[in-house]
Amino acid sequence: MKTTVYNPSELEVEFAKALENIKDQLESNLPGNRIIDIENRIQTDNPIVRFKLQDADGDPHEIVVKVIQTPDKF
To answer: Residue 1 and which of 10, 40, 55, 61 are 20 to 30 A apart at CA?
Structure first.
């Protein structure tokens, strides 16, 4: 599939949704931390997935993942 639109691309959007869908798997790989909320800005250029976490002490933390597809190389 050739990418014709990059702002955001279909693949970027699908990847951002996939990150949200694997919340439980991500959480199981983050000992002592719990994902309490996910904010998914899918329609922005380079979608942003913001994970709000809480550690074992009850302290809040945030991890932000920006999804960027580089130009196709054909």
So the answer is: 40
Burial 18-43 (b: 16+ CB within 10 A, else e): ebeeeeeebeeeeeebebeeeebbbe
For 28-45, write each residue's pLDDT tens digit. Answer: 999 999 999 999 999 899
Element (DSSP H or E) covering residue 18: helix 10-21
Dihedral sign for Cα atoms in the order 38, 42, 43, 45: positive
Instruction: Compute CA distances 26 → 5, 6, 43, whole Å.
Output: 29, 27, 23
Map residue 6 onto helix, strand or coil: coil
